[in-house]
Amino acid sequence: MKVYLKSLILLLVTGSLISLSGCKNDDPEPENIPELVTKVTLKFTPAGGGAAVTVTATDPDGEGVQDIKVDGTINLIKGTQYTLSLELINGLYKVGDDGYNITAEVEEEGDEHQFFFRFSEGAFSSPTGMGNIKDNSSSTAGSINYLDKDVNNLPIGISTSWTSSGVATSDKSFRVVLKHQPDIKSSTSTSLDGESDLDISFVLNVN
Amino acid sequence: MGQVNCKLSVAGKVLDDLKGPLPGATVFIKEHNIGKVTDQNGVFVFSDLCEGEYSFEIKFLGYETRVINLTLRKSENIETILKTEDRLLTEVIVSDHREPVGKASNYGALSGKALEEVRGKSLGESLQNITGVNTIQSGPAIFKPVIHGVHSQRILILNNGVRQEGQQWGAEHAPEIDPFIAANLVVVKDAGAIKYGTDALGGVVILTPAELPTDQQLGGQLHIIGSSNGRSGVISGLLEGGLTNYKGWGWRLQGTAKKSGDMHTPDYNLSNTGFQELNYSASTGYHKGGKGFEVFYSHFNTIIGILKGSVVGSTEDLAIALEQEPPQNTQPFTYQIRSPRQEVQHDLIKLTSHIRKGDNLFNIQYALQINNRKEFDLRRGSLNEVPALGYKLFTHTVDAEWEKTKEKSHTRSLGLNGMAQDNNKIDGTQTLPFIPNFNNYTAGLFWIEKFSKNKWDWEMGARYDLRYYKIVGFDFKNQLYRSEFNFHNVSATAAGTLKINPTSSFTSSLGSAWRPPNVAELYSLGTHQSAAAIEYGLLLDEITNEVRSPDEVDFKAEQAIKWVNTYRVQKEKWSMEMTGYINYIFNYIYLKPRGVTENTRGIFPYFRYTQTDASFLGADLSLSYSVTKKLKLNSRISLLRAKDETNNDYLIFIPSNRYEVSMRYDTPNIQSWTNPFIEIRLKYVAKQNRAPRVVPIRDIIEAKEQGIDLFENDNRNFDFVDSPEGYFLASISLGISKPIQKSKLDVRISVENLTNTAYREYSNRMRYYADEIGRNLSIAMKYSF
Fold this sequence. Notes:
The structure holds two protein chains of two kinds.
Chain A: H1 2-22, E1 39-46, E2 53-58, E3 69-71, E4 74-76, E5 81-89, H2 102-108, E6 113-119, E7 124-126, E8 145-146, E9 159-164, E10 169-180, E11 195-206
Parallel strand pairs in A: 4-11
Antiparallel strand pairs in A: 1-2, 1-5, 2-3, 5-9, 6-10, 7-9, 8-9, 10-11
Chain B: E1 8-16, E2 26-29, E3 34-37, E4 43-49, E5 52-59, E6 66-72, E7 76-82, E8 107-111, H1 112-116, H2 123-127, E9 133-137, E10 143-147, E11 150-151, E12 155-159, E13 162-163, E14 184-188, E15 203-208, E16 219-227, E17 232-243, E18 246-260, E19 263-264, E20 269-270, E21 275-288, E22 291-305, H3 315-323, E23 341-357, E24 360-376, E25 389-407, E26 410-425, E27 437-453, E28 456-474, E29 480-501, E30 504-515, H4 519-523, E31 525-527, E32 534-536, E33 558-570, E34 574-599, E35 602-626, E36 631-644, E37 649-650, E38 658-666, E39 674-685, E40 693-694, H5 697-705, E41 718-719, E42 727-740, E43 743-752, E44 776-784
Parallel strand pairs in B: 1-7, 12-15, 32-35, 40-41
Antiparallel strand pairs in B: 1-4, 2-3, 2-5, 5-6, 8-14, 9-10, 10-11, 12-13, 14-15, 16-17, 16-44, 17-18, 18-21, 19-20, 21-22, 22-23, 23-24, 24-25, 25-26, 26-27, 27-28, 28-29, 29-30, 30-33, 31-32, 33-34, 34-35, 35-36, 36-37, 36-38, 38-39, 39-42, 42-43, 43-44
């Protein structure tokens, strides 16, 4: 009986000690969410000067049910050369915060990221074709005029060059995909490799 | 009259019908009311006995009880074989305080030789050898047990008498248990484990270690297992003994290490599917007379890789992954485990005590569990080594029970269970938490009566539970929300076994069970590892997705009624067990497709936790026929139909029907080598034809691009691909033993998937991306002393 009582006391004391140490009722710390992209801006700057064409896509609720809002149509002037620069923003941060500008992060991690593009045939005179987003493993990829390189001399795609078609055309599509390809990115990797960080489509007109 | 000699001893050995030792069997001398438990080698010793008449009662769960009458004049050695018993259930009253299964329940067990055959496998995979138990899998190393079609939070796992509490809400979260701890594995297929609390809608898995030794003899065993697929190795050891000067004290140390590299299918490597495990446990206790006290500590630690090719960031990625074989990013074999991966630790400290006073038995138990789960995904840059999901769960449980033996065959138990749980996110994941932080306080009381009358054994019970949740989490805008609410309910069971004649019996059990919604089902928010679908909890607003107060939302606890009937026949040459069951679950909580949304990563279908009424109707059959004394045929069939009754629809990931036959031949001993055997198994798993409709991922994307949401007005369940075709598997195993003085060596060689068949299993989530593993040769050695 003595052993029993002793053990019971030991059990209860240990139990209550551990219970007390395990509890904490403070508010949890909110997390920073650096990987969320809430706003994407595409800026087409004419090489010969003139007004840039800017379109944006905004995600109002991240993982929520609301669709992204695409602001504006890409209206390019025919036969013009443009430099397209991409900007990715996480609106949960303030301007100037580390996590605000995701483009900079992508650039830093350029050796594991690549932007891919797809567009309606005939919208551009350079590049020609439909871009380098593949449908499946057997389809072929076109080329894109990448203006930037990562440490391994492979393209990233934050900055690209485009020459619009000499013929006016409307209601075409323009799609941008950002792939995360850690240990995968190589001279032979394609849009089918890795994980999508971004996949977004716009309407394109050439006037 | 000469002086009576009171220095006699009786030593003995208990074997199963395959001549393997039975650890954990109880040997009871009725005249003296003293009991012993067999050690790892099936050995027991009684000393200081006087001359006289004794009857030794030898019992073990799942085996026929045997009584040996002995007139003791000198010290004796006895050896006895317990026959496997399908006919009638024996209770395990181990020395004085254990009794996991009632006489009147429907159950299946793995112990003795049958357990040896699955040594080295995970808990879920081992349990598949029990009729009516399947698994859902996420790749080759993550198995969750499924009892009669239900799993995860709907079944209860009792690890060494303690409710296992981990992050069981995830279908890819396997139980954090080292099955080497157990001397037997039991699955109770009835609903409502009245003694253990809520949630056991489908049944209970019970892992029981052997009793601690109470004599000073040192014993132990060592397992070494190597397998070709994954080039894996398992080493597990156990050492136990008593204390020379302290009679009644015993101790045990146990540990297991596992390491596996990438598994492979018949045609390609499964990159990043390796795993590692390092587990250990220690226990010590005192058992003497009617008193006992025990301390148990165990640590479980694993790292499991997730198939590289299953990494998808969007439906577009998923569409690509579904079409690729071998999966994308398939690389040569390696032991290295990279992201995505899971790292899980589980610690358990348990203190138990019992005392028997006359007809009364008191048990008290306290346990603390600390579960630590981290999931790593492929992330940008430095975040790659930061878990994308991380939770730490503390669980305290206190159980107290009073059992009174009223007459010879009538016992009554009353008891209390208490649980306090604290779940906290691991700070710094830099993701929106998938589930909130919470505190969960649960209290319950139960009452059970067991009695025998005429040809019937009865068991009846009822319990009442109260659960209180306190929640604090972050919504999709990363804003804090809080909530507090509670649930309470009553459940009851009644079960009876009729002994029709000495060779047959019939068991029927009717049980109700309930389960409050899990925190994950209420508040989930986000995308699962490799699922390409967004999940929303029951309390998230349908339109705005804001977290709502529980008072504003109409939701209920799950309530199940399960009726299980088993007919058993045990004849000289053959035996049969036939089970039919229906489990009707009201307010069944599941993920229902509700729409398609678009964010910057692309198009995603989203699912909301919804409630419906579901039914699980099935039958299990096992047959065994001894052609000769050496040749035995076995067959097992398990059939199941699961349905969403409200919507007249099928549920997803329900294991399909399966059929198995096996032939075992025990050959004569070869010189000093004993018990050689060869066993061949054939298994056929049918295609799951009762699967939800198929909506190809490309259709979802194309429709959405044209502004059509395929699920807006059609909420029927769906799957991205058709269920895989049925498959045949063959396996073979050979074994032999060699006694070396007092110790023994067992060697077993087995080949699974003998024909190297490429196939996919419907209940494995990996089926979207890759085939199952190909041929696997294993060599297992066990040395016991």
